[in-house]
Amino acid sequence: MKTIDWKRKLSSRKFWTAVAAWMTSLLTAFNVMENHIAQTAIIVSGIGSLCVYMLAESMVDRNGGDKSAKAVSEE
Fold this sequence. Notes:
By secondary structure, this protein is mainly alpha-helical.
């Protein structure tokens, strides 16, 4: 059985779009007010954006970051 690569999954914009769509559908099914649905979709999108940013930055740091920034700091 394959294991899920959560780091890759959480850095996917498609994943966060699917989560926001699922939450919107679920809230609509329970007759939640439209304003609350919009707020929830915005919060989920914001969390997704933060996850993508943090994982991207960690990948850059792990790979050595920006070489030109290192060259400037060494001078």
